[in-house]
Amino acid sequence: MKLFKNVRNGFIEMVFGPRWTYIATVRTFLQNFLSITLADNKWADVISMAASELLENAVKYASEEGTKISVEHSKDEAKLYLNVENFATPENSKVLAGEIEKISTGDPQEVYLQKMQEAALRTDGGSQLGLARIRYESNAAINMVVEGDLIRVTVIFDLK
Prior knowledge:
Blueprint: E1 9-16, H1 20-38, H2 41-61, E2 67-74, E3 79-87, H3 90-103, H4 108-121, H5 130-138, E4 141-147, E5 150-158
Antiparallel strand pairs: 1-2, 2-3, 3-5, 4-5
């Protein structure tokens, strides 16, 4: 095990198998952890909701074992970085990239309302509301990096 010495930024990292049963537990843990770290229950709620949405996507679309979540709080920047990593097929990576591009442009509320209307018309049981909800409720930036079959989605929360 490697222990990091990082005086300025607080962080946490968890790695687990892609299981639905872990998502609620991780969300609750993050919510409690962030309430203490940030001393702000509103941000703790929003960030833990975002983590839950990203973890649901990671578990649902994982191509193999391994889901990683990390949170880094930069006090100097007043930002929090939420990262979720998992392995996915090229097809799922492409769909996710398109979805992030779609929800990242335009007014967050309008994009969310449009996605809700689309979800109401879907017949496949899916909604694809998670990323739009994150952006709407937090106005956070959402980025994605793909390295081979590894996907990392980063949500950057401006805590100012």
